[in-house]
Design brief:
This is GNAT family N-acetyltransferase. The protein is of the alpha+beta class. The chain is built from six helices and five strands.
């Protein structure tokens, strides 16, 4: 794992990120890799927002993992800043080799450095392997999540 580099994504990384998002049973139904402009525009909005961090993990210049982290200052929990981690993906060829754990530890360190008191995430109910992965990292399944599709 010492040859892994985690960093803020650039526009150049967008095709690889979209490939990772689509390389997934659920993502394959939601993503459209053949429409790069949509993703480039979305990346521009994410990258311009100081409360967002699109992360990539790479080895020898090849993007193998990604996640998006949103930093939210708040009033609750005595004015705590929280982070929400979304769209965590690891290349299917790399799953189970520790890359995801290394990326999540990097993200947790980044959240600490930014003064976060809490890191939260959601995971689709059918992603039982992902739930086990997050529990093994120390996340506690403490809430029921809800979404409203607009």
């Amino acid at each position: 794992m010492s040859d892994l580099v985690f960093r803020r994504a650039t526009l150049h990384d967008v095709p690889a990120i979209v490939g990772l998002l689509a390389d997934d049973r659920l993502g394959a139904q939601r993503e459209s890799p053949d429409d790069p402009k949509v993703y480039e525009q979305a990346f521009g909005r994410v990258d311009a927002d100081p409360g967002q961090l699109q992360v990539v993990g790479e080895r020898q210049g090849v993007v193998l993992a990604t996640a998006q982290v949103t930093f939210i200052p708040g009033l609750s929990r005595r004015g705590a800043t929280r982070a929400i981690v979304e769209a965590v993906r690891v290349a299917s060829t790399e799953r189970g080799a520790g890359l995801g754990s290394a990326m999540m530890r990097w993200i947790l360190d980044e959240c600490r450095a930014r003064g976060c008191d809490l890191v939260q995430l959601t995971s689709a109910v059918e992603r039982e392997d992902a739930h086990r992965f997050y529990r093994n990292l120390g996340f506690v399944q403490s809430h029921a999540g809800f979404k409203y599709q607009l």
